[in-house]
UniProtKB/TrEMBL annotation:
Binding-site residues for substrate, renumbered to this chain: R361
Domain of life: Bacteria
Cofactor names: pyridoxal 5'-phosphate
Domain (Aminotransferase class V): residue spans on this chain: 43-212
Protein's UniProt name: Aminotransferase class V-fold PLP-dependent enzyme
Pfam families: Aminotran_5 (PF00266)
Length: 420
């Protein structure tokens, strides 16, 4: 035991592209005592979690539940359950996570077709429709917000295109949910998976997902029940067996459904946590949470620009919750990050692929989409840049951010008094 002290990490402020500091209530929820997995209290919590996430996703989908694992557990569950070997899958790639979707679809033996735009841009609906017409995929798989580029792909018009061409529409909205609008039913999405560690303000380790009736019907045709528990409800499956047991969505649905057929042991502490993330989100109000992310993102962006730093990408399509910042030529990007982390206790993100060494990524997500967090980050970054010999106007970043917050507060007060 010698040398193994109790856990006591430094009080970091996590201002990268995720993970972020948890909402305090979410941390407390994780420390709640367990009950058995078929205890009516637990199954009650499971049903409540389904109902809460229907509201978070803006959907009426019955099949809205948690896949245990980090966000990619949700991605993998959707893709391995939907894809039969040889199925065509179309993936518009605008950043690192599009490549991840392609990689997972390939492992599921899909015939993968990709289209790409340069990092920092998004697709038009026309570009996607043209590709759908030529590929004729079974499934369109896209990311909504790709933290690698900070871009938010507009989805509102794509569902109708998919419907017209009889294509299933899946989206990984891990980075964007909670901080940007996501309307699962209105936008006609068939499957969406997310995680907690971005704007929902929890730790990674649970992947909420929602599935349309059409998607459910498709995966149900592949339902092979485990030997020994087949009963009158289960007809013989017609499709090839889903290759993963853990990520077999029909089995997971039967575990979350009235039948409660045993599958895995629910990760109860993560369920407590996911349930609390949704409660925090809905209690504050979805519109209010998104507005809080927008003002934090606007303030961070204004601060960065006032410091004379250049933001990355097409700002019309930037996610509210993260900004890419070009690293000035006269500083060492990694040294700045290290000093911020070790001396100021503030973490900001590095980058991947074509952006490696070129930009930092600064997030304002969940619990950290707060004025004080924005101000501390800007002031500390300015100080570290000065320590590195890069000169930016003193106090300009913080002042610009403060003025964005002041304007936002005035707008809210004005709207409030107009309603009186
Ligand atoms: C952050 C992020 C993930 C994270 O996946 P994990 O398995 O939780 O690490 C997935 N998709 C997108 C788009 C993300 O931004």
């Amino acid at each position: 035991m010698q040398g193994f002290t109790p856990l006591s990490p430094p009080p970091r402020l996590l201002m990268g592209p995720g993970p972020i500091n948890c909402y305090p209530r979410v941390l407390s929820a994780m420390a709640t005592q367990l009950v058995g997995q078929y205890d009516p209290v637990m199954t009650g919590y499971m049903n409540e979690t389904m109902a809460l996430y229907r509201d978070v996703f803006n959907t009426k989908n019955q099949q809205t539940f948690l896949v245990d694992g980090t966000s990619r557990a949700g991605i993998e569950a959707v893709l391995v359950s939907a894809i039969e070997p040889g199925d065509k899958v179309l993936i518009p790639i605008f950043g690192r996570f599009g490549h991840l979707l392609a990689e997972i679809a390939e492992r599921a033996d899909a015939e993968v077709h990709t289209i790409e735009v340069p990092w920092g841009e998004v697709f038009t609906p026309e570009q996607i429709e043209t590709a759908i017409k030529s590929v004729k995929p079974k499934l369109l798989a896209t990311v909504q917000g790709d933290t690698s580029t900070t871009m938010l792909q507009p989805l509102a018009d794509i569902g109708a295109i998919c419907e017209a061409h009889d294509v299933l529409f899946y989206c990984d909205a891990t980075a964007s949910i909670g901080g940007n609008p996501l309307e699962v039913d209105a936008w006609k999405l068939d499957a969406v998976s997310v995680g907690l560690q971005k704007c929902l303000g929890g730790p990674s380790g649970s992947a909420p997902i929602t599935l349309s009736d059409k998607f459910v019907k498709t995966v149900r045709t592949r339902h092979h029940v485990e030997a020994g528990i087949r009963d009158a409800h289960h007809q013989a499956a017609t499709g090839p067996k889903i290759r993963s047991n853990y990520f077999d969505l029909p089995m997971i649905m039967d575990y979350w459904g009235d039948e409660r057929l045993n599958h895995h042991t629910e990760a109860a502490s993560m369920l407590y946590c996911a349930r609390e993330c949704a409660r925090v989100h809905l209690e504050e109000g979805q519109q209010q949470v998104i507005a809080r992310h927008k003002v934090a993102g606007d303030a961070m962006l204004a601060g960065i620009q006032a410091m004379g730093l250049a933001p990355f990408g097409d700002l019309r399509h930037k996610m509210y919750n993260v900004v890419g910042v070009y690293i000035p030529d006269d500083v060492e990007g990694e040294e700045v990050r290290e000093t911020l982390l070790l001396r100021f206790n503030i973490e900001i993100g590095t980058s991947f692929g074509p952006l490696k060494g070129k930009i930092w990524r600064i997030g304002t997500m969940g619990y950290n989409a707060r004025e004080d967090a924005v101000l501390h980050t800007l002031q500390s970054l300015e100080t570290v840049l000065r320590m590195q010999g890069h000169h930016c106007p003193a106090g300009a970043g913080v002042e610009a951010a403060l003025s964005v917050y002041t304007q936002a507060k005035n707008a809210v007060n004005k709207a409030g008094s107009a309603n009186e």
